[in-house]
Every structure is written in structure tokens, then in C-alpha cells.
Amino acid sequence: MVQNRSQNGLGLTRLQGLALRSVNQRPGITMTELAQQIGITNPQLTRIVTTLEDRGLVKREHNPENRRVVNVQSTEQGVALIAQNVEAVAARYDQALQTLTPAEQTTLVRDLQTSMRLMTKAGILKGLKQPVAADQSPAPK
């Protein structure tokens, strides 16, 4: 069986990374909500969360209001790994974007912002804290 390992050396499969990012974005998310968000079954998620928990990246806690519900939280180590991942991805994107002219960078940012806004409006992207307005394009480097 081939494991889908990340290319940045963090040692997480795609689904493990997705689960960790989701938990980091929604602290205390329930196992059921997390499975639905990722699009996998509860038993699949249980295996993924167990692996993340064994690595010290997340912890499970019974909900104090309903002991049948299990909430998942990132640990400090999990938050740090996500931050490391974000930095690695940003560095790769920054390097790739340097091949574009300033005008091409501006066009790309504007078009991506428009795409994100429209996908959020259509319900394709959910949970974005603040859609980026088209007139808030960062200056190209």
C-alpha cells in the first residue's frame, strides 16, 4: 500500500494533515463533525486521530455536556507543526511566484481572490473567516 506522504517532510499523510488543519481551525470540533468535514467515515477518522494522538499532535476529550460526544483539540505540538507547514508552503509559493512579473503577480492575486469569493458564495468553500475583497490585493514583491 502506498502512503500519501506530504512533500514537505512533515511525515503526515494527506488525510492526517487535513484532519490536523481542521482541528487547528476549529478547536473542540466533534469527531462526527470532523469526519463530515473531511469526507470520510467515523471509523477511518478514528484511525487517523489515533495516529495523530499517538504522535502528540491532538487530544480527544469527552464533551462535559454529553459524554457520548468526543471533541478533538490540537496540542501545542500540533499547532507548532501546522505553523511549520504554513511557513514551508508559503516559502514554496513565494519562490514560485518570483518567476512572475509584478503585473502577473497582481493579476494572479486578484483572480484568486475573486475565485475564493465566488466559491464561498456558492458554498464550495466554507468556514473562511473573512473573504478577501478584490481591492485588498497585496503589493507584488
Q: Point out poorly predicted stretches.
A: 1-8, 130-141
Which structural class matches the secondary elements? Answer: mainly alpha
| Portion in helices | 40-55%
Number of separate strands: 3
As a whole number of angstroms, the C-alpha radius of gyration is 18 Å
**Termini separation:** 43 Å
**Continuous helix count:** 5
The coarse silhouette is globular
What is the mean predicted local confidence, pLDDT?
Answer: 85
| Main beta-sheet annotation | 3 strands, antiparallel
Strand content: 5-15%
H and E string: HEHHEEHH
Strand neighbour order, sheet with most strands:
1-3-2
How would you characterize this protein structure?
There is one protein chain. By secondary structure, the protein is mainly alpha-helical. The protein is built from 5 helices and 3 strands; from the N terminus they run αβααββαα. The chain has a 3-stranded antiparallel sheet with strand order 1-3-2. A hairpin with a 7-residue loop joins β2 and β3. The protein starts with 13 loop residues before the first helix and ends in a 20-residue tail after the last helix. The N terminus and C terminus are likely disordered.
